[in-house]
Amino acid sequence: MKRKLVRQGGSAMTITLPSDWVKRFKLEGGDEIDLEEQQGKLIISTEAGKKENSIELSVSGLGPMVKRVLGALYKTGYDEFSIRFETPEEFETAQQVIREQFVGFELVDHQKKRFVARKISTIDSKEFDTLLRRMFIIIKVLGEELIEAIKEKDNAQLKMLALRDKDVNKLADFCRRTINVYGAIQFKRPGPLYFIVEQLEKVGDYYRDLCLELSRRDLNTAGVDLEYLKRVNLLYTKIYELYFQFEMEQLPELHALQKSIKEQAQELRKQEYDPLVLHYLQAIAESVFDMHGPLLTMKM
């Protein structure tokens, strides 16, 4: 579709909007629309009159996969879902995941073996960067406070730290939903960005599992190598800093740190270092470093 530019005054240019598009979204004079410049394109969008999409399905017999299925509906971008179930356990699981993880959603109808969840409020998609940064920071602080809890031999604090992963999961789900709903309209490289969000959630899960594992142990004899943990945390911090302030010159240092962490893991394995603790620390380091490829794709 082509439009001619019309000069207005000295240097201003205007175009007319397609009448079908204006009617479909019920726009009138004085209404606001969004303009975004992206790689030589000027993208015009509006939230007005946006049609809500809904779906109906059954979660009967899905057991622990109920959470996964509902999570997929939310992340895909559905605004309403009608869910059929058979057991109280299925409903309880669904109710819990909607209330704890789905930003802006509530149960609006509940019948004998069916309920409806609907989006009743919206967080502006323009807040995406703020919420993504918050997710980065929650994980960063979690790693730092994990070291302090180990030093202080505070098992209760380790259990508390593990609970912070719930906040990470909630933010990750919101970010993935936003990417799926707005795609290339809002994001320059939605694919690599989605991968980074997935990795962040995975890193949060590994920190959570490490906290829970250590909380069950006698920290006087656990023998956690704090220097190794500090280096893993440092790798995460460098990825965090690169995401929000990308500098090509930092890449060799990132690679060198990742290589030294891998080499140190091999030495710890020879020393019969606790294999489960080492597994979690290596998993964190590998998941963090795996973000560098998509990050490069986004920043180039």
Task: Describe the structure using short key phrases.
300 residues, alpha+beta, Methane Monooxygenase Hydroxylase, Chain G, domain 1, 2 domains, four-stranded mixed beta sheet, two-stranded antiparallel sheet, 58% helix, 13% strand
What is the averaged pLDDT score?
A: 89
Radius of gyration over all CA atoms, rounded: 24 Å
**Number of separate domains:** 2
Number of strands: 8
* End-to-end distance: 30 Å
Give me the strand/helix succession.
EEHEEEHEHEEHHHHHHHH
Largest sheet: 4 strands, mixed
Indicate the overall shape.
Answer: flat
Number of helical segments?
Answer: 11
Strand order of the largest sheet: 5-6-8-7
CATH architecture of the largest domain: Up-down Bundle
For the record, what is the CATH homologous superfamily label of the largest domain?
Answer: Phosphate transport system protein phou homolog 2, domain 2
| Unreliable segments of 5+ consecutive residues | none
Label the structural class: alpha+beta
Helical content class? 55-70%
Instruction: Find the CATH topology of the largest domain.
Output: Methane Monooxygenase Hydroxylase, Chain G, domain 1
Characterization of this structure:
There is one protein chain. The protein has 300 residues and is of the alpha+beta class. The chain has two domains: 54-119, Translation Initiation Factor IF3, CATH 3.30.110; 126-299, Methane Monooxygenase Hydroxylase, Chain G, domain 1, CATH 1.20.58. The chain has eleven helices and eight strands. It has helices at residues 19-24, 66-76, 88-101, 128-151, 155-162, 165-186, 190-215, 226-244, 251-270, 275-289, 292-299, and strands at residues 6-8, 12-14, 34-38, 41-45, 54-58, 80-84, 105-111, 114-119. A four-stranded mixed beta sheet has the order 5-6-8-7, covered by helices on one side. It has a two-stranded antiparallel sheet with strand order 1-2. It has a two-stranded antiparallel sheet with strand order 3-4. Strand 7 and strand 8 form a beta hairpin. The radius of gyration is 24 Å and the shape is flat. The mean pLDDT is 89.
